[in-house]
Design goal:
extended, mainly alpha
Length: 127
Amino acid sequence: MARDVHEQARDLLSALGGAGEQPTAAQELQRDVLLVAGLLAAAATDRGGSGQEPAVTDNEVGAALGLFDTMREQLDRLETEVVFEARRRTMDWRQIAAQQGLNSSQAASQRYQRLVTRLEEIRQGVR
């Protein structure tokens, strides 16, 4: 069921196409996700047990692991911006909660506050 909702959301947003330039955070996140996906695709060929030299090195796997903190921060920043836009458009917390798959407006508001706090701590170097 949730997958159908997500697919509908992707279809709706895909219709926007190139409506404006993507924010830098979104471009970086997309690039990093594609890099990790490429690594995993290459690593899948290593599992064949052919005895050949691995397509992916341990250093490359380590480099991919190193991207996740940055990707989480970028994703948090994007989510915060979208929630801010929803509020700017006068969506209430109940509506936002429903779109995020949360059970209450309080849960949506608290999630947003946690994201804002986390991003501020990262900005200040606390995290």
